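So, can you check what follows?
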Amino acid sequence: MNRRWTRNFGALTLTPALAFGLSGLMQIPASVQAQSQQQPAHPDLPNAPAAVPDAPKPQAPAPMSDVKNQVTPGLGSESPKPTGSSAPASSEAQPDGQSPAPGSRAPATTGPDTVQTTPPETPEAGKGSENVGYKIRSVTNFVEVPVTVKDSKGQLVAGLTFRDFQVYENNVRQRLDLFTVDPFPLSIAYVIDQSVTADVMSKVNNSLAAIQGALTPYDDVAVFTYNNGAKQATGFTGAQSHLLTAVLAQTKATGREESVPVTSGPLAGCSITSNGECVDPNIQQGRSAGGAQFMTLPKEIHTLNDAILRAAVALSNRPPNRRRIVYVISDGKEAGSKATTKEVIKYLQTNKIAVYATLVGDSARWGEGYLSRFHIPFQMNDNVLPKYTQATGGSLDAERSVNGIEKSYAKIAEEARTQYTLGYISHQPAIDSRYRSIEIRVDRPSKEIEVTAKPGYYPTAQDVR
C-alpha cells in the first residue's frame, strides 16, 4: 500500500516550473558552479550574492615640474605616438638626430629645374590684383615684380608662362609663389612740366585732352605741375570724371620765352646807369649778371626732383593692389630742387612706384636727346628722366609732334597695365634697410626680346604681412 502511494506521489508532484528549474540547473557548467561556490557572501547579509568589485580610483594629474616633456610647442599636449613597428613610417627620410626645419621645402629629385618644383599660385582670370593686394601672408617678405617683355620691333610679347621666367635676388634663384597676367588698375600721378619753352608748351597743351582716352573707369589720376616749385592741381579722382577734364584744361600754361643772352656790345653789361649804378638791379655788379667786364648767365630753375617726390608721396597711400605710376611730361631738365635724384629714386624703390615719361623739347631730338643724358660738370642736368625709368622699371618715349605725344599716352598706359606679375617670398631678413638687386631672366634669346623690370628695391615694413 505504501509503496504504491509513493510511486504515484512522485509522478504527480513534478510541476512545469519545478521541472524547468531542474533542467536549467542541470545545464549550468561545472566551472561556473565552482566559482559561485568559492565567492564569499556579504558579511551582513548571509544570503546575498557575491560582492561587485569597486570602480577604479581617479588618477592624479602629472606634476607641473614635468610640463616640458608633456607639451611640445606648436603641437599642444598630444599623446606620444607609438614607436613600435605599428607606427606609420615618415614620407620623407631625415638624417639621424635631425628633424625637418619648419617651412622648409624639399629639393626636387627629378627634372632639370630644382628650384621651381611646383607651379606658383595662378589666380583666376580677373582676380590677380586681389591676390597681390589683400592676401594674408605670415611672417614673410612678399616681393611683387611687374615685368614687361617686348620683341625686337618693340611689340609686347604675350603667351609666356611661369616656366619661361627665372627670378634672382642678390644672385640667388627664387621660387615663384605667384604668377598672373591679369591687367591691374592704375593709380597715375601726372607731372606736367611748365618750364619748357612756349612752342613746346603749346604742343603739350594740345595733347592733354588725349590723356583720358588712354585710361579706364577703374583708374584714378592726380595732376601735378612744376615750374619754379611743385604744385598739386588735384588729388586722386576718377580717370573718366568731369573734374579731371576741368583740371587738365586749367593746367595749360604759356611756357617760357627762349631768349638769347647778350654778352658783348652796347646791350651787354650795364648800358644804362643812374648816379653810377645800373638802373636794372638784375644786372648790377655782384648780382646774377655780373658787371661791365663780364656777364654771368642767369641760372635756370627746373624743379623736377621736387615734383616727382611730391607725386610719389601722394601715390604711397594708394591701395597695394594697384599699379603706382608717376607719369612725367617734360624735357627732363633738373635744376634748383631741394631733393636730390638719388634720394627720390630710393623713395620710389621703397614704395613700389614706377616712373614712365614722355620726353618733349630738345631731349626728344635724335642725337641731342642721347647727349643730354650726360651731365656736364658745373652745369644743370639736361635730362635725368632715363635714370628714373631705369631704376624703377618704367619706360621712356620721346616725341616731338602733338600726334606723337598723344599716342605715347595710350602706348605707355597699355604697357603699364598689361604686364606679367611675378611674386616671390624673399629669404632675406624681413627688415634690414639694405638694397636688394633683382634680375629677371626669360627663356628666349636675348637678341629677340627686351625685358624691362625694376633692378632692385629697398625693403619696407609694409611688405611684412
Summary: Confidence is low (pLDDT under 50) at residues 1-26, 74-110, 285-292.
